[in-house]
Protein backbone atom coordinates (compact mmCIF):
# COMPACT_ATOMS: atom_id res chain seq x y z
CA UNK A 1 0.00 0.00 0.00
CA UNK A 2 1.37 3.44 -0.94
CA UNK A 3 1.27 6.39 1.44
CA UNK A 4 -1.63 7.94 -0.48
CA UNK A 5 -3.55 4.68 -0.51
CA UNK A 6 -3.04 4.67 3.24
CA UNK A 7 -4.50 8.16 3.53
CA UNK A 8 -7.41 7.03 1.35
CA UNK A 9 -8.03 3.98 3.54
CA UNK A 10 -7.87 6.04 6.73
CA UNK A 11 -10.54 8.46 5.53
CA UNK A 12 -12.75 5.62 4.33
CA UNK A 13 -12.47 4.03 7.78
CA UNK A 14 -13.22 7.33 9.52
CA UNK A 15 -16.45 7.58 7.51
CA UNK A 16 -17.39 3.91 7.90
CA UNK A 17 -17.25 3.24 4.16
CA UNK A 18 -15.22 0.02 4.06
CA UNK A 19 -12.25 -0.35 1.74
CA UNK A 20 -13.80 0.44 -1.67
CA UNK A 21 -16.64 2.40 -3.24
CA UNK A 22 -20.07 0.81 -2.84
CA UNK A 23 -23.58 1.99 -3.58
CA UNK A 24 -25.74 3.12 -0.67
CA UNK A 25 -29.25 1.68 -0.91
CA UNK A 26 -31.87 1.47 1.81
CA UNK A 27 -29.38 2.48 4.47
CA UNK A 28 -26.66 -0.05 3.62
CA UNK A 29 -23.53 -0.41 1.49
CA UNK A 30 -24.17 -2.68 -1.49
CA UNK A 31 -21.73 -4.13 -4.02
CA UNK A 32 -22.42 -3.90 -7.73
CA UNK A 33 -22.01 -6.81 -10.10
CA UNK A 34 -21.03 -5.14 -13.36
CA UNK A 35 -17.93 -3.79 -15.06
CA UNK A 36 -14.95 -3.04 -12.81
CA UNK A 37 -14.22 0.67 -12.43
CA UNK A 38 -10.90 1.91 -11.05
CA UNK A 39 -10.43 5.22 -9.26
CA UNK A 40 -7.11 6.85 -10.10
CA UNK A 41 -5.31 9.48 -8.02
CA UNK A 42 -4.86 12.35 -10.52
CA UNK A 43 -1.76 13.57 -8.66
CA UNK A 44 0.21 10.31 -8.83
CA UNK A 45 -1.69 8.63 -11.69
CA UNK A 46 -1.80 5.52 -9.49
CA UNK A 47 -4.93 3.49 -8.63
CA UNK A 48 -6.68 4.13 -5.32
CA UNK A 49 -9.49 1.55 -5.36
CA UNK A 50 -11.72 -0.48 -7.67
CA UNK A 51 -15.39 -1.37 -7.56
CA UNK A 52 -18.12 -2.93 -9.69
CA UNK A 53 -20.71 -0.95 -11.66
CA UNK A 54 -24.05 -0.96 -9.80
CA UNK A 55 -26.10 -1.95 -12.84
CA UNK A 56 -29.82 -2.16 -13.53
CA UNK A 57 -30.74 -4.43 -10.62
CA UNK A 58 -29.35 -2.05 -8.01
CA UNK A 59 -30.90 0.90 -9.84
CA UNK A 60 -34.30 -0.76 -9.46
CA UNK A 61 -33.66 -1.45 -5.76
CA UNK A 62 -32.64 2.16 -5.18
CA UNK A 63 -35.71 3.58 -6.92
CA UNK A 64 -38.02 1.22 -5.03
CA UNK A 65 -36.41 2.18 -1.70
CA UNK A 66 -36.75 5.89 -2.44
CA UNK A 67 -40.40 5.49 -3.43
CA UNK A 68 -41.25 3.68 -0.20
CA UNK A 69 -39.34 6.05 2.09
CA UNK A 70 -40.76 9.12 0.33
CA UNK A 71 -44.28 8.24 1.45
CA UNK A 72 -43.23 8.37 5.09
CA UNK A 73 -41.08 11.48 4.61
CA UNK A 74 -43.78 13.53 2.89
CA UNK A 75 -46.86 12.29 4.77
CA UNK A 76 -45.60 10.83 8.04
CA UNK A 77 -43.55 13.85 9.16
CA UNK A 78 -44.67 17.43 9.43
CA UNK A 79 -42.90 19.95 7.23
CA UNK A 80 -41.37 21.49 10.34
CA UNK A 81 -40.03 18.09 11.42
CA UNK A 82 -38.45 17.57 8.00
CA UNK A 83 -36.81 20.97 8.29
CA UNK A 84 -35.39 20.07 11.70
CA UNK A 85 -33.86 16.87 10.32
CA UNK A 86 -32.17 18.93 7.62
CA UNK A 87 -30.75 21.33 10.20
CA UNK A 88 -29.37 18.31 12.07
CA UNK A 89 -27.80 17.06 8.84
CA UNK A 90 -26.08 20.42 8.35
CA UNK A 91 -24.40 20.13 11.75
CA UNK A 92 -23.46 16.48 11.18
CA UNK A 93 -21.75 17.29 7.87
CA UNK A 94 -19.51 19.80 9.64
CA UNK A 95 -18.59 17.15 12.21
CA UNK A 96 -17.11 15.01 9.40
CA UNK A 97 -15.74 17.86 7.30
CA UNK A 98 -12.07 16.85 7.40
CA UNK A 99 -12.29 13.22 6.22
CA UNK A 100 -14.79 14.24 3.52
CA UNK A 101 -12.47 17.01 2.33
CA UNK A 102 -9.43 14.72 2.26
CA UNK A 103 -11.29 12.07 0.25
CA UNK A 104 -12.47 14.74 -2.18
CA UNK A 105 -8.94 16.07 -2.58
CA UNK A 106 -7.51 12.61 -3.23
CA UNK A 107 -10.14 11.37 -5.65
CA UNK A 108 -11.07 14.59 -7.50
CA UNK A 109 -7.67 16.31 -7.34
CA UNK A 110 -9.04 19.52 -5.81
CA UNK A 111 -6.84 21.45 -3.36
CA UNK A 112 -7.70 20.53 0.21
CA UNK A 113 -8.47 24.11 1.18
CA UNK A 114 -11.03 24.33 -1.63
CA UNK A 115 -12.56 21.03 -0.54
CA UNK A 116 -13.00 22.27 3.01
CA UNK A 117 -14.86 25.33 1.72
CA UNK A 118 -17.14 23.18 -0.41
CA UNK A 119 -18.00 20.84 2.48
CA UNK A 120 -18.95 23.89 4.56
CA UNK A 121 -21.14 25.09 1.70
CA UNK A 122 -22.90 21.72 1.60
CA UNK A 123 -23.76 22.11 5.29
CA UNK A 124 -25.11 25.56 4.48
CA UNK A 125 -27.27 24.09 1.70
CA UNK A 126 -29.04 21.72 4.09
CA UNK A 127 -29.52 24.50 6.63
CA UNK A 128 -30.90 26.88 4.01
CA UNK A 129 -33.38 24.44 2.51
CA UNK A 130 -34.26 23.09 5.95
CA UNK A 131 -35.58 26.57 6.67
CA UNK A 132 -37.81 26.38 3.59
CA UNK A 133 -39.36 22.98 4.37
CA UNK A 134 -42.37 24.41 6.24
CA UNK A 135 -42.78 27.47 4.04
CA UNK A 136 -43.76 25.78 0.78
CA UNK A 137 -47.38 26.73 0.26
CA UNK A 138 -49.75 27.69 -2.50
CA UNK A 139 -52.00 30.66 -2.93
CA UNK A 140 -55.68 31.60 -3.08
CA UNK A 141 -56.71 32.77 -6.54
CA UNK A 142 -59.71 35.13 -6.98
CA UNK A 143 -61.30 33.32 -9.93
CA UNK A 144 -64.39 35.03 -11.44
CA UNK A 145 -66.75 32.04 -11.17
CA UNK A 146 -67.50 32.34 -7.47
CA UNK A 147 -65.48 29.25 -6.60
CA UNK A 148 -62.90 29.16 -3.85
CA UNK A 149 -59.74 28.25 -5.76
CA UNK A 150 -56.45 27.51 -4.06
CA UNK A 151 -53.22 25.76 -4.97
CA UNK A 152 -51.05 23.25 -3.13
CA UNK A 153 -47.35 22.62 -3.83
CA UNK A 154 -46.87 18.86 -3.85
CA UNK A 155 -43.63 16.85 -4.07
CA UNK A 156 -43.05 14.98 -7.30
CA UNK A 157 -42.21 11.65 -5.65
CA UNK A 158 -38.80 10.26 -6.64
CA UNK A 159 -36.23 12.28 -8.58
CA UNK A 160 -33.11 10.90 -10.23
CA UNK A 161 -30.01 13.10 -10.13
CA UNK A 162 -26.69 12.74 -11.97
CA UNK A 163 -23.72 14.78 -10.74
CA UNK A 164 -20.24 15.39 -12.24
CA UNK A 165 -16.65 14.65 -11.30
CA UNK A 166 -15.44 18.25 -11.00
CA UNK A 167 -17.33 19.05 -7.75
CA UNK A 168 -18.88 15.84 -6.41
CA UNK A 169 -19.61 16.82 -2.79
CA UNK A 170 -20.77 20.32 -3.72
CA UNK A 171 -23.14 19.21 -6.48
CA UNK A 172 -24.36 16.34 -4.31
CA UNK A 173 -25.57 18.74 -1.64
CA UNK A 174 -26.73 21.26 -4.27
CA UNK A 175 -29.14 18.68 -5.70
CA UNK A 176 -30.18 16.58 -2.70
CA UNK A 177 -31.06 19.39 -0.26
CA UNK A 178 -33.82 21.16 -2.26
CA UNK A 179 -35.28 17.84 -3.43
CA UNK A 180 -35.82 16.45 0.06
CA UNK A 181 -36.88 19.83 1.47
CA UNK A 182 -39.74 19.70 -1.01
CA UNK A 183 -40.70 16.23 0.23
CA UNK A 184 -39.18 14.04 -2.47
CA UNK A 185 -37.18 10.83 -2.41
CA UNK A 186 -33.87 10.85 -4.28
CA UNK A 187 -31.74 8.44 -6.26
CA UNK A 188 -28.43 10.07 -7.12
CA UNK A 189 -25.64 8.81 -9.37
CA UNK A 190 -22.39 10.71 -8.95
CA UNK A 191 -19.75 10.36 -11.63
CA UNK A 192 -18.27 6.88 -11.67
CA UNK A 193 -14.88 8.60 -11.25
CA UNK A 194 -15.74 10.38 -8.00
CA UNK A 195 -18.57 8.57 -6.19
CA UNK A 196 -17.31 8.24 -2.63
CA UNK A 197 -18.03 11.59 -0.98
CA UNK A 198 -21.66 11.47 -2.10
CA UNK A 199 -22.04 8.10 -0.38
CA UNK A 200 -20.42 9.59 2.73
CA UNK A 201 -22.81 12.55 2.64
CA UNK A 202 -25.92 10.35 2.56
CA UNK A 203 -24.58 8.00 5.22
CA UNK A 204 -23.94 11.00 7.50
CA UNK A 205 -27.41 12.39 6.72
CA UNK A 206 -29.01 9.13 7.83
CA UNK A 207 -26.99 9.16 11.06
CA UNK A 208 -28.53 12.60 11.70
CA UNK A 209 -32.10 11.38 11.23
CA UNK A 210 -32.81 11.16 7.51
CA UNK A 211 -35.05 8.12 6.93
CA UNK A 212 -33.26 5.11 5.46
CA UNK A 213 -33.89 4.73 1.77
CA UNK A 214 -35.05 8.31 1.21
CA UNK A 215 -31.77 9.11 -0.56
CA UNK A 216 -29.89 6.34 -2.35
CA UNK A 217 -26.53 6.57 -4.09
CA UNK A 218 -25.71 4.51 -7.18
CA UNK A 219 -22.02 4.06 -7.94
CA UNK A 220 -21.80 3.17 -11.59
CA UNK A 221 -21.87 4.00 -15.27
CA UNK A 222 -24.36 6.08 -17.21
CA UNK A 223 -25.25 3.63 -20.01
CA UNK A 224 -26.03 0.85 -17.52
CA UNK A 225 -26.91 2.20 -14.08
CA UNK A 226 -28.05 5.65 -15.18
CA UNK A 227 -30.27 4.54 -18.02
CA UNK A 228 -31.98 1.96 -15.82
CA UNK A 229 -32.78 4.57 -13.19
CA UNK A 230 -34.19 7.00 -15.76
CA UNK A 231 -36.51 4.29 -17.05
CA UNK A 232 -37.77 3.21 -13.62
CA UNK A 233 -41.50 4.02 -13.26
CA UNK A 234 -41.07 5.59 -9.81
CA UNK A 235 -38.79 8.33 -11.16
CA UNK A 236 -40.77 11.49 -11.90
CA UNK A 237 -37.98 13.87 -12.91
CA UNK A 238 -34.35 13.70 -14.02
CA UNK A 239 -31.69 16.24 -13.04
CA UNK A 240 -28.31 16.22 -14.77
CA UNK A 241 -25.14 18.26 -14.23
CA UNK A 242 -22.38 17.72 -16.76
CA UNK A 243 -21.37 18.17 -20.38
CA UNK A 244 -23.75 19.19 -23.18
CA UNK A 245 -23.00 15.95 -25.05
CA UNK A 246 -24.03 13.72 -22.17
CA UNK A 247 -26.85 16.08 -21.26
CA UNK A 248 -28.43 15.54 -24.68
CA UNK A 249 -28.39 11.77 -24.16
CA UNK A 250 -29.90 12.11 -20.71
CA UNK A 251 -32.60 14.47 -21.95
CA UNK A 252 -33.47 12.12 -24.82
CA UNK A 253 -33.76 9.15 -22.45
CA UNK A 254 -35.96 11.17 -20.09
CA UNK A 255 -38.13 12.40 -22.97
CA UNK A 256 -38.57 8.85 -24.25
CA UNK A 257 -40.02 7.99 -20.83
CA UNK A 258 -42.12 11.21 -20.83
CA UNK A 259 -40.22 12.60 -17.86
CA UNK A 260 -39.13 16.23 -17.50
CA UNK A 261 -35.47 17.10 -16.99
CA UNK A 262 -33.37 19.87 -15.52
CA UNK A 263 -30.02 20.22 -17.28
CA UNK A 264 -27.10 22.17 -15.86
CA UNK A 265 -24.50 21.97 -18.61
CA UNK A 266 -21.40 23.77 -19.80
CA UNK A 267 -20.39 27.30 -20.62
CA UNK A 268 -17.99 29.48 -22.55
CA UNK A 269 -18.47 32.53 -20.41
CA UNK A 270 -17.23 35.99 -21.36
CA UNK A 271 -15.26 37.94 -18.78
CA UNK A 272 -15.31 41.52 -20.13
CA UNK A 273 -12.76 44.15 -19.07
CA UNK A 274 -13.24 47.79 -20.07
CA UNK A 275 -10.49 50.39 -20.14
CA UNK A 276 -11.90 52.24 -17.11
CA UNK A 277 -11.81 49.18 -14.85
CA UNK A 278 -9.47 48.80 -11.90
CA UNK A 279 -7.10 46.55 -13.81
CA UNK A 280 -5.39 45.00 -10.79
CA UNK A 281 -8.74 44.13 -9.28
CA UNK A 282 -9.96 42.78 -12.62
CA UNK A 283 -6.78 40.74 -13.03
CA UNK A 284 -7.31 39.02 -9.68
CA UNK A 285 -10.88 38.33 -10.75
CA UNK A 286 -9.78 36.96 -14.09
CA UNK A 287 -7.32 34.59 -12.38
CA UNK A 288 -10.04 33.27 -10.09
CA UNK A 289 -12.46 33.04 -13.00
CA UNK A 290 -10.35 30.63 -15.05
CA UNK A 291 -7.49 29.23 -12.98
CA UNK A 292 -9.17 28.28 -9.69
CA UNK A 293 -10.19 24.64 -9.60
CA UNK A 294 -7.80 24.15 -12.54
CA UNK A 295 -10.49 25.73 -14.71
CA UNK A 296 -12.82 22.77 -14.17
CA UNK A 297 -15.92 24.86 -13.60
CA UNK A 298 -18.98 25.32 -15.80
CA UNK A 299 -18.93 29.08 -15.13
CA UNK A 300 -15.19 29.52 -15.79
CA UNK A 301 -14.36 32.82 -17.47
CA UNK A 302 -12.75 31.05 -20.39
CA UNK A 303 -13.14 33.94 -22.86
CA UNK A 304 -11.35 37.06 -21.68
CA UNK A 305 -12.62 40.05 -23.66
CA UNK A 306 -10.40 43.10 -23.05
CA UNK A 307 -10.68 46.60 -24.50
CA UNK A 308 -7.96 46.96 -27.14
CA UNK A 309 -6.44 50.03 -25.45
CA UNK A 310 -5.50 48.08 -22.31
CA UNK A 311 -5.25 44.51 -23.58
CA UNK A 312 -1.45 44.31 -23.67
CA UNK A 313 -1.11 45.82 -20.19
CA UNK A 314 -3.82 43.59 -18.78
CA UNK A 315 -2.43 40.37 -20.22
CA UNK A 316 1.01 41.22 -18.89
CA UNK A 317 -0.54 41.57 -15.42
CA UNK A 318 -2.37 38.28 -15.86
CA UNK A 319 0.75 36.44 -16.98
CA UNK A 320 2.75 37.85 -14.06
CA UNK A 321 0.06 36.82 -11.62
CA UNK A 322 -0.36 33.28 -12.92
CA UNK A 323 3.34 32.66 -12.50
CA UNK A 324 2.85 33.11 -8.74
CA UNK A 325 0.16 30.42 -8.50
CA UNK A 326 1.26 27.27 -6.65
CA UNK A 327 0.63 23.97 -8.43
CA UNK A 328 1.01 20.81 -6.44
CA UNK A 329 -0.32 17.99 -4.31
CA UNK A 330 -4.03 18.52 -3.55
CA UNK A 331 -3.36 17.42 0.05
CA UNK A 332 -0.72 20.15 0.51
CA UNK A 333 -2.10 23.19 2.34
CA UNK A 334 -0.07 25.50 0.06
CA UNK A 335 -1.46 24.16 -3.22
CA UNK A 336 -3.67 26.57 -5.14
CA UNK A 337 -4.19 24.50 -8.30
CA UNK A 338 -4.27 20.72 -8.41
CA UNK A 339 -4.18 18.41 -11.40
CA UNK A 340 -6.91 17.88 -13.96
CA UNK A 341 -9.28 15.38 -12.39
CA UNK A 342 -8.83 12.47 -14.80
CA UNK A 343 -6.77 11.27 -17.75
CA UNK A 344 -9.54 11.67 -20.32
CA UNK A 345 -10.05 15.32 -19.44
CA UNK A 346 -6.29 15.89 -19.32
CA UNK A 347 -6.02 14.61 -22.88
CA UNK A 348 -8.86 16.90 -23.97
CA UNK A 349 -7.34 20.02 -22.41
CA UNK A 350 -3.82 19.41 -23.70
CA UNK A 351 -5.21 18.52 -27.12
CA UNK A 352 -7.17 21.79 -27.27
CA UNK A 353 -4.07 23.81 -26.36
CA UNK A 354 -2.02 22.06 -29.03
CA UNK A 355 -4.75 22.58 -31.62
CA UNK A 356 -4.91 26.29 -30.75
CA UNK A 357 -1.15 26.57 -31.16
CA UNK A 358 -1.35 24.79 -34.51
CA UNK A 359 -4.04 27.29 -35.53
CA UNK A 360 -1.65 30.18 -34.86
CA UNK A 361 -2.31 31.06 -31.24
CA UNK A 362 0.41 32.66 -29.18
CA UNK A 363 0.52 30.37 -26.11
CA UNK A 364 1.58 32.05 -22.88
CA UNK A 365 2.03 29.53 -20.08
CA UNK A 366 4.12 28.63 -17.07
CA UNK A 367 7.35 26.84 -17.89
CA UNK A 368 7.40 24.86 -14.64
CA UNK A 369 4.90 22.16 -13.71
CA UNK A 370 5.06 19.10 -11.44
CA UNK A 371 6.86 16.10 -12.89
CA UNK A 372 3.91 13.73 -12.48
CA UNK A 373 0.14 13.99 -12.41
CA UNK A 374 -2.45 15.35 -14.84
CA UNK A 375 -1.21 18.92 -14.54
CA UNK A 376 -1.98 21.69 -17.01
CA UNK A 377 -0.34 24.97 -16.00
CA UNK A 378 -2.29 28.25 -16.26
CA UNK A 379 -2.35 29.18 -19.93
CA UNK A 380 -3.33 32.22 -22.02
CA UNK A 381 -4.13 31.87 -25.72
CA UNK A 382 -3.60 35.07 -27.70
CA UNK A 383 -4.11 35.99 -31.34
CA UNK A 384 -7.26 33.98 -32.03
CA UNK A 385 -10.65 35.31 -33.10
CA UNK A 386 -13.92 34.53 -31.38
CA UNK A 387 -14.84 31.89 -33.97
CA UNK A 388 -11.73 29.83 -33.26
CA UNK A 389 -12.30 26.39 -31.73
CA UNK A 390 -10.59 27.45 -28.51
CA UNK A 391 -13.06 30.33 -28.17
CA UNK A 392 -16.16 28.26 -28.94
CA UNK A 393 -15.46 24.84 -27.39
CA UNK A 394 -15.54 24.27 -23.64
CA UNK A 395 -11.96 23.38 -22.68
CA UNK A 396 -12.69 22.84 -18.97
CA UNK A 397 -9.14 23.49 -17.87
CA UNK A 398 -6.99 26.46 -16.75
CA UNK A 399 -6.86 27.87 -20.28
CA UNK A 400 -8.24 31.28 -21.28
CA UNK A 401 -8.66 32.70 -24.78
CA UNK A 402 -7.94 36.45 -24.84
CA UNK A 403 -9.78 38.57 -27.43
CA UNK A 404 -9.80 42.35 -27.83
CA UNK A 405 -12.80 44.57 -28.54
CA UNK A 406 -13.22 48.19 -29.59
CA UNK A 407 -16.42 49.34 -27.91
CA UNK A 408 -19.44 48.30 -25.88
CA UNK A 409 -21.41 47.08 -28.87
CA UNK A 410 -18.61 44.79 -30.02
CA UNK A 411 -18.11 43.45 -26.51
CA UNK A 412 -21.80 42.47 -26.35
CA UNK A 413 -21.70 40.90 -29.81
CA UNK A 414 -18.61 38.85 -28.93
CA UNK A 415 -20.02 37.80 -25.56
CA UNK A 416 -23.22 36.50 -27.18
CA UNK A 417 -21.45 34.88 -30.14
CA UNK A 418 -21.46 31.40 -28.59
CA UNK A 419 -23.76 28.39 -28.31
CA UNK A 420 -23.79 28.74 -24.52
CA UNK A 421 -25.69 30.97 -22.12
CA UNK A 422 -24.53 30.27 -18.59
CA UNK A 423 -22.52 33.12 -17.09
CA UNK A 424 -20.59 36.29 -17.74
CA UNK A 425 -19.01 39.32 -16.07
CA UNK A 426 -18.04 42.91 -16.69
CA UNK A 427 -15.36 45.06 -15.08
CA UNK A 428 -15.98 48.80 -15.38
CA UNK A 429 -16.25 51.99 -13.32
CA UNK A 430 -19.29 53.11 -15.33
CA UNK A 431 -22.42 52.08 -13.40
CA UNK A 432 -24.73 52.66 -16.34
CA UNK A 433 -22.55 50.56 -18.62
CA UNK A 434 -22.40 47.80 -16.01
CA UNK A 435 -26.19 47.51 -15.97
CA UNK A 436 -26.44 47.72 -19.75
CA UNK A 437 -23.99 44.85 -20.08
CA UNK A 438 -25.84 42.79 -17.45
CA UNK A 439 -29.04 43.21 -19.45
CA UNK A 440 -27.53 42.62 -22.89
CA UNK A 441 -25.25 39.62 -22.29
CA UNK A 442 -27.05 36.27 -22.56
CA UNK A 443 -26.35 34.57 -19.23
CA UNK A 444 -28.20 32.98 -16.34
CA UNK A 445 -25.68 34.52 -13.91
CA UNK A 446 -23.85 37.79 -14.47
CA UNK A 447 -21.31 39.51 -12.22
CA UNK A 448 -20.32 43.15 -12.05
CA UNK A 449 -16.75 43.82 -10.89
CA UNK A 450 -16.48 40.31 -9.47
CA UNK A 451 -16.56 36.70 -10.63
CA UNK A 452 -17.77 33.29 -9.42
CA UNK A 453 -19.83 34.54 -6.49
CA UNK A 454 -22.66 32.03 -6.08
CA UNK A 455 -24.91 31.10 -3.18
CA UNK A 456 -27.51 28.46 -2.52
CA UNK A 457 -30.18 31.17 -2.08
CA UNK A 458 -29.79 32.55 -5.62
CA UNK A 459 -31.12 30.80 -8.75
CA UNK A 460 -28.52 29.17 -11.01
CA UNK A 461 -28.84 27.83 -14.54
CA UNK A 462 -28.49 28.74 -18.19
CA UNK A 463 -29.92 28.53 -21.67
CA UNK A 464 -29.06 27.00 -25.06
CA UNK A 465 -26.15 24.54 -24.71
CA UNK A 466 -25.89 25.50 -21.05
CA UNK A 467 -29.14 23.67 -20.32
CA UNK A 468 -32.48 24.66 -18.84
CA UNK A 469 -34.18 24.86 -15.45
CA UNK A 470 -32.78 26.27 -12.22
CA UNK A 471 -30.99 24.37 -9.48
CA UNK A 472 -30.81 26.66 -6.46
CA UNK A 473 -32.74 29.33 -4.62
CA UNK A 474 -36.51 29.10 -4.36
CA UNK A 475 -36.56 28.34 -8.09
CA UNK A 476 -35.15 24.90 -7.31
CA UNK A 477 -38.01 24.22 -4.93
CA UNK A 478 -40.42 24.94 -7.76
CA UNK A 479 -38.53 22.45 -9.93
CA UNK A 480 -39.08 19.77 -7.27
CA UNK A 481 -42.78 20.41 -6.69
CA UNK A 482 -45.95 20.47 -8.77
CA UNK A 483 -48.90 22.82 -8.28
CA UNK A 484 -52.28 21.24 -7.64
CA UNK A 485 -55.30 23.49 -8.24
CA UNK A 486 -58.29 22.85 -5.92
CA UNK A 487 -61.77 24.21 -6.71
CA UNK A 488 -64.60 24.50 -4.18
CA UNK A 489 -68.02 25.56 -5.42
CA UNK A 490 -69.18 28.07 -2.82
CA UNK A 491 -72.47 29.01 -4.54
CA UNK A 492 -75.80 27.92 -2.93
CA UNK A 493 -77.00 24.49 -4.03
CA UNK A 494 -79.82 24.99 -6.61
CA UNK A 495 -83.25 23.60 -5.71
CA UNK A 496 -83.75 22.14 -9.18
CA UNK A 497 -80.86 20.83 -11.20
CA UNK A 498 -80.75 18.51 -14.19
CA UNK A 499 -84.40 17.46 -13.77
CA UNK A 500 -84.11 16.49 -10.12
CA UNK A 501 -85.86 18.24 -7.25
CA UNK A 502 -83.68 18.81 -4.21
Report what the structure shows:
The structure is a single chain. The chain has helices spanning 3-14, 55-76, 79-95, 97-108, 112-132, 168-181, 196-207, 222-231, 244-256, 279-290, 311-322, 343-358, 389-392, 408-416, 431-440, 473-479; strands spanning 23-25, 28-30, 36-41, 46-52, 140-141, 148-155, 158-162, 185-189, 215-217, 235-241, 261-264, 270-273, 303-307, 362-365, 379-382, 399-405, 420-421, 423-427, 445-448, 463-464, 467-468, 481-488, 496-497, 500-501. With 502 residues, the chain is an alpha/beta fold. It starts with a helix and ends with a strand. The protein is 40% helix and 21% strand. Helix 2 packs across helix 8 (222-231), helix 3 (79-95) packs across helix 7 (196-207) and helix 10 (279-290) crosses helix 11 (311-322). Helix 10 links the parallel strand 12 and strand 13. It is built from 16 helices and 24 strands.
| Rg, Å, rounded | 24 Å
Structural class based on helices, strands and sheet pairing: alpha/beta
Helix run count:
16
Average pLDDT taken over every residue: 96
In short:
With 502 residues, this protein is of the alpha/beta class. It has helices at residues 3-14, 55-76, 79-95, 97-108, 112-132, 168-181, 196-207, 222-231, 244-256, 279-290, 311-322, 343-358, 389-392, 408-416, 431-440, 473-479; strands spanning 23-25, 28-30, 36-41, 46-52, 140-141, 148-155, 158-162, 185-189, 215-217, 235-241, 261-264, 270-273, 303-307, 362-365, 379-382, 399-405, 420-421, 423-427, 445-448, 463-464, 467-468, 481-488, 496-497, 500-501.
Amino acid sequence: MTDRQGVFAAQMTALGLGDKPQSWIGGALVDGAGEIITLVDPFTEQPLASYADAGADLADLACDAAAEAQKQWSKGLSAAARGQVMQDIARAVLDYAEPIAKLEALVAGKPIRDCRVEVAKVAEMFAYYGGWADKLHGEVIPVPSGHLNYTIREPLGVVFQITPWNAPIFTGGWQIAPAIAAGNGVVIKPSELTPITTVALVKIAESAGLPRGLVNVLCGLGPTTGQAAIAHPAVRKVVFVGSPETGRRVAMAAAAALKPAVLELGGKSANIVFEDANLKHACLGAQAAIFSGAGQSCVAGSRLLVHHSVQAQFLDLLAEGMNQIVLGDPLDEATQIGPISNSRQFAHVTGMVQAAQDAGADVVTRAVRPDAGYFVPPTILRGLGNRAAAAQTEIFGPVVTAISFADEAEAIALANDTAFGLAGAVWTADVGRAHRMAEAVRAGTFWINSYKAIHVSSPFGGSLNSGFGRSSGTDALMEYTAAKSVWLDSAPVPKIAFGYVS
